[in-house]
Amino acid sequence: MYLTSKIILLPTQQQANTLSNLITIYNTEVNKCISKFIMNQKIAWIPYSTLDKHLPWESKKEVIKEAKKIFNDYSRRSSSTTGSFKGEYCRWHFDSFTLNSKLILQVGQQSKISVDYYADPYQKNLLSSGFLTSLRIENVKRKWYCYVKILIDDPQPVGEHIMGVDLGIKVPAVAATSTGKIRFFGKGRQVRFICTSQTSRLSKLMRKNDYRSIRKTDQKWGNKLLSIDHQISKKIIDFALKENIKTIVLENLINMQKKSDAGKRVSSWSYLRLKSLIEYKARKNGVTIQTINPYNTSKKCPNCNGINNITSRKYICNCGYNNHRDIVGAINICNYNSKKPN
User: Fold this and answer.
1) CA–CA separation, 29 vs 91, rounded Å?
2) φ and ψ of 180, to 5 deg
3) Is pLDDT at 265 greater than 50 in this prediction?
4) Which domains does the chain have, with CATH numbers?
5) Who's near 166: CB < 8 A, 6+ residues apart?
6) Could you tell me the end-to-end alpha-carbon distance of the chain, in angstroms, rounded to an integer?
7) Cα Rg for the chain, rounded, in angstroms?
8) N or C, fewer C-beta in 10 Å, the chain?
9) What is the 3-state secondary structure (H, E, C) of the chain?
């Protein structure tokens, strides 16, 4: 599996100028390759020797790889959109850098620079746990960051039980295990309060045309919601490891917002963000993920398999079974037959 570690670079002024020039060259060369692909209407062969000589030889591989990816995305979109690279970064292949006490980068065909960096103990341990395959350097608001891609062995599953997780709006997540344990995660009211207060603030800023403050508020809003999802996903995985869980089952709700009549209510709820964080942290800890069709998971009675249309938070069935509606959903997800197609 691949993990990414973000470290802070501390280049000198001269090194920063060198990196800035490389980012500009990288951006230009990627766009040149894309233009050639578009002109030929296919991915054409581009010799490395035709790319800018100031690029490290191994970075030229990343240029062509980046151009191919953008061209393939452009080909799938309508012809009215223009395929172009807008990233403000440069990539290095594993043959063109080493990372020990300092980051040694190849910055041309022959020259190298040695850049200081900061990494906390967790990052240092992660960097030494696998093979460094590539890195990306970018400058954000006059700060330099390096994203290192690390290849490590997949941890082997050690659990034996199954856990179903029902993701929602009023209750962010409810988990039910095959051993009968139930657990609620997160506070829906907290997310709604953040969204309501931020929406109100954005409306006032829009009337004042204060676009600088709008960008800051938007970013602050996104960071708060991301932080909440990180906390929820961590608690879910910690609970799974404590309960000896082998597989976490989730609903496939990708098209929910498009199909739901209550689309406005879920506009501030990012199912994909929370799902991706759960998947990432589960895989990192050797827990497998299974996604299932969400059809009737909140309507089916776990006791008699009857279907009931419930409008309140309390689920009541004609057979006498009653429970919280989200718990019912989590139990049905946990009990889903894994042999059925998604």
Assistant:
1) 12
2) 95, 5
3) no
4) 2-151 (no CATH), 161-334 (3.30.420)
5) 173, 174, 175, 176, 251, 297, 298, 326, 327, 329, 330, 333
6) 24
7) 25
8) C
9) CEEEEEEEEECCHHHHHHHHHHHHHHHHHHHHHHHHHHHHCCCCCCCHHHCCCCCCHHHHHHHHHHHHHHHHHHHHCCCCCCCCCCCCEEEEEHHHEEECCCEEEECCCCCEEEEEEECCHHHHHHHCCCEEEEEEEEEECCEEEEEEEEECCCCCCCCCEEEEEEECCCCCEEEEECCCCEEEECCHHHHHHHHHHHHHHHHHHHHHCCHHHHHHHHHHHHHHHHHHHHHHHHHHHHHHHHCCEEEEEEECCCCHHHHCCCHHHHCCCCHHHHHHHHHHHHHHCCCEEEEECCCCCCCECCCCCCECCCCCCEEECCCCCEEEHHHHHHHHHHCCCCCCCC
Tokens 């341990």 belong to residue: 125
Closest CA to 2 of 284, 291, 288: 284
| Rounded alpha-carbon distances, angstroms, from residue 15 to 22, 28, 54, 106 | 11, 20, 15, 12
Tokens of 300: 């089916």
Q: 199 pLDDT band (50/70/90 cuts)?
A: confident
Q: Which two tokens stand for residue 41?
A: 């209407």
CB 173 within 8 A of CB 166: yes
Q: Which two tokens stand for residue 129?
A: 């746990």
Inter-residue contact 184 to 171 (CB < 8 Å):
yes
Q: Report yes or no: 115 and 11 within 8 Å, Cβ to Cβ.
A: yes
What sign does the CA torsion over 336, 181, 242, 238 have? positive
5-58 per-position pLDDT tens digit: 999 999 999 999 999 999 999 999 999 999 898 888 888 899 988 999 888 888
